[in-house]
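Hey all, sorry for the wall of text incoming. These are the two entities for the joint prediction.
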Amino acid sequence: MADVTYLEALRQGLWEEMERDPRVFILGEDVGAYGGAFKVTEGFVKKFGEQRVIDTPISEAAIVGAAAGAAHMGMRPVAEMQFIDFISCAYDMLTNYVATARYRAGLATPIVVRGPCGGYVRGGPFHSQNPEAAFFHTPGLKIVYPATARDAKGLIKASIRDDDPVIYLEHKWLYRRIKEALPEGEEIVTPIGEARLAREGKDLSIVTYGATVWKSLEAAEQLAKDDGLSVEVLDLRTLLPMDDAAIMRSVQKTSKVLIVHEDTRTGGVAGEIAARINEQAFAWLDGPIMRVTAHDVPLPYAPTLEDFVLPQTDDIVKAARWLAAY
Amino acid sequence: MVSRAAPARQSPPIPAGLTRDHLVEIYRYLRLTRTLEERLTALYRQSKVIGGLFRSLGQEGESVATAYALARGPNQDILSPLIRNLGSMLVMGAPPIEILRQYMAKAEGPTRGRELNVHFNDLEKGYLGQISHLGDMIPVMAGIALTFKLRGEPRVGLVYIGDGGTSTGTFHEGLNFAVVQKVPLVVIAEYNRWAYSTPPEKQFAVKDLAEKAKAYGIPGTTVDGNDVLAVYEATKFAVERARRGHGVHLIEVKTYRRTGHAEHDDQHYVPKDELDWWAKENDPVDRYVKQLVQNAWVEDRDLKGIDEGVKAEIDEATDACVDEPLPPPDSALDGVYIDPPAAPRHWYRGL
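and here's what came out:
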């Protein structure tokens, strides 16, 4: 059983779906001959040809719009945003056209829009973003955000097979940092809408997703060692639709919740999670629902600045300790 | 020298490979468009049409003629109409009763009361309704035409854009994408003089929209948009060229929007004499009728018969749906996704 990276797992998932289903095709900037800015689609054009791996102009709205049109006709397009920061250029197409198509007109639009997101890589304001909150508000879209290699593979496959549009966020800090043994020949499909219990605990729950799953696990380990605290870590995996039941199960077990995400705080996904817990599990709470997130600034470049702005393991440790003592 | 008898006076040949039956059918669609819109105007004044009413008065000719140049029938060519392309939808086979239901937000309408006016679709018949964000249908139709190309199907896409719509980013992105992918797409740029209240000189600095084609490396043609047969002929050429794999073609149709942006708009910004001139001298339906009759292609009385038939058809469609119910309120929750099938109802609605 070979260890595969998060990036390789994603690549395998895409490759297998391309082999399985002739309706699947890829379009995006530099995805063909170059193999994608991070080499996710390296070798694809050689195997599948230029008709199924399409290099496009720098036109995110056209990439998403054309994917939508093809999807209406029964195709299964996977559109790459070279960096997910550029998905904002397709915001209109995604929120007004794609997201509403089934509801307003009964139009199937099974597209996947995927791309590298996230910071901790000194990418500066326009190569580090986490855009989930901008789309989380839009009925009609689904948003998945894998944290493990297994889910990187399982969620890309599930997203391609889903009959509705899915935004697939892949964290570039995890691309080559995370490895996992994935049995060859095993069909891995992660159901959309199901969270994963990344670590069991009884004193406090951390609800998180993406790169901060790993930082939360690190924090939980440290808290167990230094403070004797039993911390549960829930990896949401899918943000939209959200697995409320898994969140409430964890809250009922620990009665204290820390929500951790890399995105900025105001209007972020953590606020919605807190509101849902308040509505659905208020009686079980033994303390305030607290958040650890990025500070509300654009993400700066200098390591000293980026490290200060983004949530770090140490921040999670301190916040969890404070909440445990509440 | 062989002597020949002087030829008897006869009508000139019908252009563009059309037959008399085609000419009559085109007339029928023109009349159907105008009559249906007149009925919608009456229903609007009775508050039965709930939202805005957008008329295509003065532009019916180019709508009908462009659509008529497509291959029609189940799973043939596909077009994407704008609000002033009711005629294009009718040509593709949209039933008038569906238009009436849609405008009146009926439960039985094609979007079950979710969308307005001509924003609906039937991809099998070959029309994909627009969204209100102008320009967005160009990338989407590029994707549909891309699918035709990928599958090797001899089908063509056709998409409309107004003079104002050419100022959008999606117009540029979508057109450029379609061109470099060499997909079978025809773009009809409708120069109708008004984008809501804004004239062309405040939208762009070219004289003709066809000039824009040069920047994309494609042919651009300007046609008298109120000359039905000229529009048909130009579109037919572009459509068959696209079908043969030669890529995108832009056709500019010069026409004139003779009503306000919608029925609420009194057009105070439009010179009255300009409106009068277009109504009296350059109405596409009047011009078409004159051409048919003067060339003795069709008898005046045949056209009268069509007018009566169309009126009866619209009467019947209106009577059949005008008293239908609006959609039940909680039907608003279903169908955002396949799964989950419905959005949750808020807790306080059960109190």
